[in-house]
Amino acid sequence: MEYCIKVLTILKTRIEYKYPLVSIVRHYHRIPFLDFYYKTTGEELSETYLPVLKKKHPNIESLTNEEIQCTLNILKKFDITPHEACKNLHIFSMNPIAVDNYGEILKECGFINIIPQYIIRYHTLVRSKTIKFLKKEGLMRNDIILEEALLNQFPEWPPDNKYLDKFHDSNTSILTVRKSVLNKYLHWKLSTSTEEFEKYCRHYLTLKHKPMSDIREALDIAQNDIKFNIDVIRRNGFIISTDPTKTKMLLENVTTLAGLNIREAIKIEPAILRNHYKSVLHVRNILEEYRISEKAQQHCLKIYCMKPSTVQQRLDELKTLKEYQVLSTNPRALSMVVHKNKMMLRLKKIQDARKQCYSFNNLVASNTVFKNYISGFGNKVCGRDIATLIVSYANSEDSSSKSKDTELLKSVLKQLKRHKYYLHATLSVVDETIQFLKKRFDSDVIFNQCQLLLYPVSEIEVYLNHLLELRNGGENKLKHDIRLDATYNYLKYQQLTDDQILSLVLYEIEKKYHFSGDGIWARQDGMKAESVAAS
What percent of the chain is modeled with pLDDT above 90? Predict the structure, then answer.
């Protein structure tokens, strides 16, 4: 687990105890903690006592040997033995990183001894007890001036810029002094205001309970290694409270992400810092399994801020969804994974409103954009989404065309705009038509007549089959109820190219629907497109 890795990184050498867990050969129970407790104290906790133990100390029965060892390694830093820990079982129910942070903070604040009870009661000691009380009880050194001690934790901070608020020990808590010092430090370091600092404390609760040394190191990595500028750090306050050990492990173990240097990726999406490096690598492997391109990943690096299990589950669910299948080639397709729940709700509203011309923006954009779409009159799609879908079929078979994406996209969009109703074509119809035509024609031929993709297969295949039969000389198989334009009488059908065939099909369809648009939107009213032969 990530906190175990952190602990083993902090401790330069592995610490073995009188009863190291790795030496336990015989297991007296199915529960590792009970074995550890027996080996340490010589006393046996029966499994019948376990429900009482669980009620007082949650999660203790699910602890693994590795997790117990991690907690013991942290406690060793504060000279707490396994035997002492066993007298305060709640310490094993706490997050080991929190145990480490609380112990370090108490050490920074001049506690004479750090014992398990102090770590367990950390919040009471730093929030509710005055400094005078803690000194009187012998917990803190009498000679320590806490504010000065905390200011000295920042040696890079020029003495001329430091000043004391001169808190009175009789009515001041440790947390009050720590927040004051940290506020002043961040004001000097990042030019933050008191209002910004209070916002950080509200939104990032761990900030108030991070050792000053961790905060210093986190900012050092952010500014000098990742090269964040001050404005970015101020906008993303969680950077200040990130775990420096976890950040270093991310930078060391993940060199590239989505084809970008890991530092560049983090600069684009700083929230990646909040994820553990193993989770980031796991997400990357999942995306590779689904053959999601690095270009698509670059458009949505937020995917690397998610749990791998969530990414896997959402991709498994979305791959069966028709709307996702159509839009999966869009460079921003991963946004549908990130905003999956919102997208599914919007799809239902679109279906209830009997609108079929959804676009990518309608599914993942802001609520304002979606409300305008769902309440607006008419039924339109985003033209760029249609063009992107068409171009994606070219890229799927020619990787060299990636450098020409922009030009090809502009070319396709320019052709589509020549059709006055192109924004009323549904993406699913365009996708079905492309797949139908690609079985018979090359991509270049299809793109030259990309307006034809706006029409459903049922409108196209009647004329297409008829013209192909004429070209192949199969007059006997022709349907006599299909009437072509009279000007075709002198055409030499056998000499028609694929490009000319599709051009004629487009003409035959458009001469009926060019002024009405019915060829495109007849299906959107819940009606089946009429057969061309019936006209």
Answer: 52
206's CB contacts (< 8 A; 6+ apart) are 101, 241
Q: Is residue 40 part of a domain?
A: yes
pLDDT per residue over 459-494, tens digit each? 898 889 888 888 887 665 555 567 777 667 677 888
3-state secondary structure 437-463: HHCCCCHHHHHHCHHHHHCCHHHHHHH
**Distance (Å, whole) CA 276 – CA 3:** 10
pLDDT in tens, 390-419: 888 776 555 544 556 778 888 888 888 888
Helix (H, G, I), strand (E, B) or coil at 290: coil
**Domain end: 93, 114, 146, which one?**
93
- DSSP H/E element including 184: helix 174-190
Q: Residue 357 phi/psi, 5° resolution?
A: -90, 65
Q: 416 in a domain, yes or no?
A: yes
Number of domains composing the chain: 2
pTM of the model as a whole: 0.81
Q: Residue 66 belongs to what domain range?
A: 1-93
Amino acid at position 482, single letter: I
Q: Is 244 inside any structural domain? A: no
Residue type present at position 366: S
Residue after which a domain boundary falls, among 72, 93, 114: 93
**Upper half-sphere CA count for residue 300 (Cβ side, 13 Å):** 20
